[in-house]
Design a protein that fits this description.
Blueprint lengths: L3 E2 L7 H4 L2 E5 L3 H13 L3 E5 L4 H8 L3 E3 L1 H7 L2 E4 L6 H9 L8 E4 L3 H4 L10 E7 L3 H9 L6 E7 L5 H11 L7 E3 L2 H33 L4 H10 L2 H12 L10 H13 L3 H15 L2 H11 L4 H11 L2 H13 L1
Length: 329
């Protein structure tokens, strides 16, 4: 069983008077910086080149400096860059400015797990990783609700790394909802498995359902898509599942619906799903996916990714969505 930390378990005083550098002022970087300032963190600077994120940080009232300068001034460095860009930036612009006593905080464990980034041994390496998109991180903070996060330690140079990680979770507003202690490997595997295991299966379910109902059986494509997800009913189902549990949300459905769902659930053979999920897990764990992703960036220049996107956006279901959206205007 994992340990979950709440406000009472975390000492904001550990980080409140330290200088924090936000490296990567995108959706997460902006939300977390604003939340920490509202939590009372006195000194937050943004490390950025001159681009739209630089302008946004200035508009938000933060001091913005080149990454190298921001790192040298900071006690705590937030690594909030995209996974594919972070290793080079860390090596060239961040690592040279690190000093003993610094804390490097990651919101994604990917580069640590696969050793794309290897921080020096004299720094703490912690993780305060929201399980929420950036806009949600900010809006839920403003509403006083909080949002769940993962907290973990990859390197404990100070002997207090976990306490620092918990304090950062509190500073960004997460411990109102709860920060779950995990390893960096846990975060990597769970995150990638959601992306490469769970969601591809769900996409196929909707796609195959569309093909059967609209293309084979001749039901109106607009009605098929509306029943499947355009109505947003699945969104409300998942919201109730998050509050009550996946099966405990079922009383919100009719008895006919409950009987049909559970009867078909028992009839379904999950063996192919198990096999697919295990194959995905093994390919993540043994580095097969990482090797393929590296090759896609370094050799293919994202050409395969663009091909996959084009195929998805030109699928029969995507075309039907476009036609339906036009009618719904």
């Amino acid at each position: 069983m994992a340990t979950i930390y709440y406000d009472k378990d975390c000492d904001l005083g550990l980080v409140k008077d330290k200088t924090i550098a936000i490296i990567g002022y995108g959706n997460q970087g902006r939300a977390q910086a604003l939340n920490m300032r509202d939590s009372g963190v006195a000194s937050i600077i943004v490390g950025s080149r001159r681009d739209s994120s630089y302008d946004q940080a200035v508009e938000d009232g933060f001091a913005v400096k080149p990454i190298e300068e921001a790192v040298k001034e900071a006690d705590i460095i937030f690594m909030l860059l995209p996974d594919e860009y972070a290793p080079e930036i860390f090596e060239k612009q961040i690592a040279p400015g690190l000093e003993q006593g610094n804390i490097v905080n990651f919101a994604s464990a990917y580069n640590i797990t696969f050793k794309k980034i290897v921080p020096p041994a004299f720094v703490d390496v912690v993780m305060a990783a929201p399980r929420m998109i950036g806009d949600g991180v900010r809006q839920l903070f403003l509403r006083g609700e909080g949002f769940p996060s993962f907290v973990g330690v990859a390197q404990d140079a100070s002997g207090k790394a976990l306490e620092y990680g918990k304090a950062l979770c509190k500073a960004i507003g997460s411990t109102k909802k709860g920060a779950i202690e995990v390893t960096f490997d846990d975060e990597t595997m769970l995150d990638l498995m959601a992306e490469q295991g769970t969601w591809p299966i769900i996409y196929h379910v909707f796609d195959e359902s569309f093909k059967l109902l609209a293309q084979t059986m001749g039901h109106p494509e607009e009605a098929v898509l509306m029943e499947a997800y355009l109505s947003k009913e699945p969104m409300y189902m998942m919201e109730k599942a998050a509050e009550l549990g996946m099966y405990r949300q079922m009383p919100f459905h009719s008895h006919t619906s409950q009987f049909g769902q559970l009867r078909s659930f028992r009839a379904f053979d999950p063996t192919p799903i198990r096999e697919f999920l295990r194959e995905r897990y093994d390919q993540i764990k043994d580095g097969t996916f990482t090797k393929a992703w590296d090759e896609e960036q370094q050799v293919n220049d994202l050409a395969t990714l663009e091909k996959y996107r084009d195929e998805a956006l030109n699928s029969d279901m995507s075309r039907a969505e476009e036609r339906t959206f036009e009618k719904l205007k």
